[in-house]
Amino acid sequence: MNDTLIKVEGVSKKFCRSLKRSLWYGMRDLGNELIGRRHSRDGELRRDEFWAVKDVSFELKRGECLGLIGRNGAGKTTLLRMLNGLIKPDSGSIEMRGRVGALIALGAGFNPILTGRENIYVNASVIGVSKEEIEEKIKAIVDFAEIGDFIDMPVQNYSSGMTVRLGFSIATLLQPDILILDEVLAVGDAAFRYKCYRHMDQLLKNSAVIFVSHDMPNIGRISSSTLLLSKGEIAFLGDTLDGIEAYRELNNDPLSSNHDKIVTTYPPVKDVSIVGLPNEQQFSSKFSAEIIIDSEAHVGHCTLRFNVTDLSGNYVASCVVNSDEYNIKINRGKNHWRIGFSSLPLKADRYMLRATFTDSRGAIIALWHNGHQIRVTGGHLGIVSNCQLDLCSWNTL
């Protein structure tokens, strides 16, 4: 289904830094509205005013997920509040088709003195869900939130994790056409986030999702496109990976620039290199590479550890090949080792590769890692499992 569920055209919103002037401007604008007069000329800022969002336009269809990224204060939450109807834009138009589920602030929409069960009914009725439909799904909501023992306790006594569990469950399990999420998954524990990602994978088949996060691996895992805001304006709109690159460059992230390979060797190894790695890699596709080690002496009973990390240094895939299994050894001279990955199930992002050789005592004799060699252009939701490595051949020239 390719129907457009969200259409935003030239949306702008301005705020005032001075509270007194803000109240005066508000009263004057309200009076102008009552007599049918425009607030001010388009693009005009009054004293102490600034653009929180300026001239933002995009469309989102069913089955698409837009990753909304940018620094704190870039205008992301203001844009979400306009999309959710909490505030009005000063100019432009917003069209939202279908049922909207939103979680744009922790605990937003919850009455703290009501129980979790009562808040489910209240929140569901606000977005137009009938009582019969709520009755059918309330057990699934409670089970997904994993707060069954506390569902009849006032929400004001919930922890932040319990609150976000309940809020996410209500927003997603009522099968909205449009889902808006603002940094809410950052509060949940790892197991719950994993369950949320799997659920969103199913939800994306029939919904349009706007997902806000400062965690670029999560943006790469979920989003089909990205919108980068900077000082309220669009700095980038398009491919997810290119958007992540633009975000890192905008924030002067040292990881945004490519690095040359780094090689560290210890006697008797003189040099190590890996050739044949692809610059771009499709999800689950196979590839092979060649490891070349130049050694001044024989080294028996070696172990190779091949790790894939994200740009934050977190391990996302790894494999270990040891002498007990493959009789790995390094002879004097140049040694060539051809390896092949039968699958590398990574989400869309860039990755660093690291190969470490250790001797029988566990001491490192060679260490190699590249800058940003592999750029994965396809991916899926969920946590990455270990990659599979096939030993092709090992010989000495």
Automatic annotation (TrEMBL):
Residues 30-256 form the ABC transporter domain. GO terms for cellular component: membrane. The keyword Lyase does not apply. Keywords: ATP-binding, Nucleotide-binding, Transport. Pfam families: ABC_tran. InterPro entries: AAA+_ATPase, ABC_transporter-like_ATP-bd, ABC_transpr_TagH-like, Bact_Polysacc_Export_ATP-bd, P-loop_NTPase. One of its GO terms (molecular function) is ATP binding. Signal peptide: none annotated. It comes from the Bacteria. Gene3D superfamilies: P-loop containing nucleotide triphosphate hydrolases (3.40.50.300). Belongs to the ABC transporter superfamily. This is ABC transporter domain-containing protein. It comes from Lamprobacter modestohalophilus. The lineage of its organism: Bacteria, Pseudomonadati, Pseudomonadota, Gammaproteobacteria, Chromatiales.
